[in-house]
């Protein structure tokens, strides 16, 4: 079940693999994010320390070791 839009900060991002982790108080331990979940068109990437807005879910399994998975991420520039 998706949760409402919240603010977070990118902990880490790997351009080669196309995924990273976002930290928020609502997602203890971090929230997995894949490049395909970043809103926008063309090349989509994030940067460590970047503020973002996101919706997320707790899928009931670990996504690459994380209990939470981002559904949509908007860079908060």
From TrEMBL:
- Protein name per Swiss-Prot or TrEMBL: Cold shock domain-containing protein
A family per Pfam = CSD
SUPFAM superfamilies from the xrefs? Answer: Nucleic acid-binding proteins (SSF50249)
Q: Where does the CSD domain lie?
A: 5-75
């Amino acid at each position: 079940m998706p949760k409402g839009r919240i603010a977070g900060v990118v902990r880490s991002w790997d351009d080669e693999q196309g995924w990273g982790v976002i930290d928020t108080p609502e997602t203890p331990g971090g929230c997995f994010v894949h490049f395909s979940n970043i809103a926008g068109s063309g090349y989509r990437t994030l940067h460590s320390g970047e503020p973002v807005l996101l919706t997320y879910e707790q899928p009931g399994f670990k996504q690459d070791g994380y209990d939470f998975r981002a559904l949509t991420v908007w860079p908060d520039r």
